[in-house]
Write a structure and sequence with these properties.
The chain has 124 residues and is mainly beta. The protein contains no helices and eleven strands. Strands 2, 4, 5, 6, 9, 10 and 11 form a seven-stranded mixed sheet that branches. A four-stranded antiparallel sheet has the order 1-3-8-7, with no helix packed on it.
């Protein structure tokens, strides 16, 4: 049974940092791309960053380039989202998801399994 569990969200001031974790079970990271998405109140879910399984290529939304990075720990079967220089517009529920194949994209329709999400609030 595929399961994804996000953690690490919270309240942070503008300019601060957070690291989100996505612990995977029921599959191995070598076989699927992983994406991070977020959804703000009243807005559609948007792709933030993703990493492909085979090439380790990453793709990021323009809004987070230079501030967010994605990484994997195969031994722990966990994916991380490091978020620096946070802005109020980064506020939302953050989800991790597995793609339907080795590669990844920022399109939610390419993902089959989703975690329950973790809240990130950036506010002074």
């Amino acid at each position: 049974q595929v399961q994804l569990v996000e953690s690490g969200g919270g309240l942070v001031r503008p300019g601060g940092s957070l690291r989100l974790s996505c612990a995977a079970s029921g599959f191995t990271l070598e076989n699927n791309g992983i994406g991070w998405f977020r959804q703000a109140p009243g807005k559609e879910r948007e792709g933030v960053l993703c990493i492909s399984a085979s090439t380790s290529s990453t793709y990021s939304a323009d809004s987070v380039k230079g501030r967010f990075t994605i990484s994997r720990n195969y031994a722990k079967n966990t994916v991380y989202l490091q978020m620096n220089s946070l802005k109020p517009e980064d506020t939302g529920v953050y989800y991790c998801a597995t793609s339907r194949g080795l590669f990844c994209s920022l399109g939610a329709s390419d993902y089959g399994y989703w975690g329950q999400g973790t809240q990130v609030t950036v506010s002074s």
